[in-house]
Specification:
The structure is a single chain. Helix 9 links the parallel strand 4 and strand 5. The protein has a 6-stranded parallel β-sheet, with helices on both faces. The longest helix has 15 residues. 48% of the residues lie in helices and 11% in strands. It has 216 residues and is of the alpha/beta class. It is built from 11 helices and 6 strands. Helix 1 packs antiparallel against helix 4 and helix 4 packs parallel to helix 6.
């Protein structure tokens, strides 16, 4: 297998094992606003969505949100991720193996930029990705639109069809496929069959990634 021109990583659930931490904060906030919710219910409702796409769903249940709510929760999440961002087992090593093979890497996340940068710094990956870091704030449309992966590929000097995307959510898989990339679906938060149904090639452990990319 010929290695890809670039590898484009999602963050939450792929690099950072942060989904339950994030969902606990979101659930607590929404419960306070009048939408009783557990972290598991938050995950089911919002997995892979950007904050702008979450807001209409929330307002449909609780009415107009307080002014500045989205900014406040974004800052709260960034603070928590600075304190504690657990890594997905084997993810940091997988990124470093790709870089060691001479393949450019980028990260593309539906998180807000302060939250995303907090996670990457906590994981020790901020310098690895350098300027090739994209949040929903950097593109016209978030996942499941392809914009963020088109931008990430361009930052690596590669055509999307020559890149591999690493994703774990349906919106992310849809975004990668819409951009024209090959998508490997990490079956961590979403069942393998669901990822496959949306066009991803499922895999179950980060230790498998190097071989799937043709670099191991």
């Amino acid at each position: 297998m010929r290695p890809p021109a670039a590898v484009l990583f999602d963050c939450d659930g792929v690099l950072a094992d942060s989904e339950m931490l994030v969902n606990a904060i979101v659930a607590d906030q929404l419960t306070t606003l009048g939408w009783p919710m557990t972290p598991s219910q938050s995950r089911e409702a919002f997995l892979g969505l950007s904050l702008p796409d979450m807001v209409p769903r929330i307002e449909a249940r609780v009415g107009p949100l307080p002014d500045g709510w989205a900014q406040e929760i974004s800052e709260l999440l960034a603070l928590e991720m600075t304190r504690n961002t657990p890594a997905v087992p084997g993810a940091v090593e997988a990124v470093r193996a790709v870089v060691a093979a001479g393949i450019p890497v980028a990260v593309a996340s539906n998180s807000a930029r302060p939250e995303l940068m907090a996670k990457l710094r906590s994981l020790g990956l901020a310098e690895t990705f350098g300027a090739r870091v994209f949040s929903f704030e950097d593109v016209p449309r978030p996942k499941p639109w392809p914009d963020i992966y088109i931008a990430a590929a361009a930052s690596c000097g590669a055509a999307p069809q020559d890149c591999v995307v690493i994703e774990d959510s349906v919106p992310g898989v849809r975004a990668g496929r819409a951009a024209g990339c090959r998508v490997l679906g990490f079956a961590h938060e979403t069942p393998a069959g669901v990822l496959a149904a949306h066009g991803a090639e499922p895999f179950g452990a980060m230790g498998e990634l190097a071989a799937l990319l043709g670099v191991g």
